[in-house]
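Budget justification aside, the reviewers requested a transparent look at the raw inputs and outputs of the sequence design task funded under Objective 1. We therefore reproduce one unedited record. The lines immediately below are the structure tokens for a 236-residue chain.
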């Protein structure tokens, strides 16, 4: 499966089978986490066999079942040395991880609320745990979320160039908190893509996710450099 194909088959899955992740899957996830942590100044961790994080009533209410493995996505609150905020970098890296997981034959759900931080997650001084990504073999492959019109995030969609439209088409397939898609993509007078979040829950993290999906769909690397630490984007 290609990265593009993963965009179309990825859906949130909240109920998992007991089967543990394969060694090769764990290794691939770990390798990508190491790379993204370094490039985007994050502290993502793959946590395996944690019985507690999704054991509360809250998680059951959120219809999570048998979540034992997840990626904890954390980072320093202080974003000095990075152009993009922590929220956006978290979203951008999360997008890459959910698509990688899909390519490896796994299912995921981004979870901002209904989990409990346990001692298996390491949070250093000054860091914030922003979300976790539940990961494993889904009981099902999930279902397509109800689609919003592209004009919700791109008012000028109808008259936009094809590459921009394809970027937005991918954005509309992305995971979004409460399926809300509160963002706005425009092309400014210099032909540059401008992407902003609107007001709401997790909309800054959503924006980072959308930027990743937009780049993939449009085939243009517009935001990636702003996500990187100044060190890594300088090639140091
Ligand atoms: C930042 C963020 C936070 C989320 N938090 C939760 C959550 O706490 N509980 C939950 O069940 N789903 C959560 N989701 C999953 C969304 O509900 C889901 O992505 C959305 O409904 C679209 O469905 P899809 O992922 O199947 O395309 C979250 C998604 C994002 C991007």
């Amino acid at each position: 499966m290609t990265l593009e194909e993963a965009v179309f088959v990825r859906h949130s899955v909240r109920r998992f089978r007991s089967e543990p992740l394969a060694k090769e899957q764990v290794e691939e996830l770990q390798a990508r986490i190491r790379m993204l942590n370094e490039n985007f100044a994050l502290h993502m961790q793959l946590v395996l066999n944690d019985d507690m994080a999704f054991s509360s009533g809250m998680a059951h209410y959120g219809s999570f079942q048998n979540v034992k493995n997840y990626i904890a996505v954390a980072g320093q609150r202080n974003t000095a040395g990075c152009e993009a905020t922590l929220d956006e970098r978290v979203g951008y890296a999360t997008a890459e991880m959910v698509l990688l997981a899909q390519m490896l034959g796994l299912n995921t759900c981004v979870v901002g609320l209904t989990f409990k931080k346990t001692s298996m997650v390491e949070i250093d001084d000054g860091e914030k745990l922003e979300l976790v990504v539940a990961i494993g073999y889904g009981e099902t492959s999930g279902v397509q979320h109800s689609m919003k019109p592209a004009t919700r995030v791109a008012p000028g969609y109808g008259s936009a160039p094809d590459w921009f439209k394809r970027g937005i088409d991918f954005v509309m397939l992305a995971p979004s908190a409460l399926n809300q898609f509160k963002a706005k993509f425009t092309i400014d007078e210099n032909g540059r893509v401008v992407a902003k979040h609107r007001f709401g829950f997790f909309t800054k993290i959503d924006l980072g996710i959308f930027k990743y999906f937009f780049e993939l769909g449009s085939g243009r690397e517009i935001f990636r450099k702003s996500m990187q630490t100044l060190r890594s984007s300088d090639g140091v």
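The chain has a mean pLDDT of 94. Strands lie at 42-47, 70-76, 107-111, 127-136, 183-187, 193-197. Computational costs for records of this kind are itemized in the attached budget.
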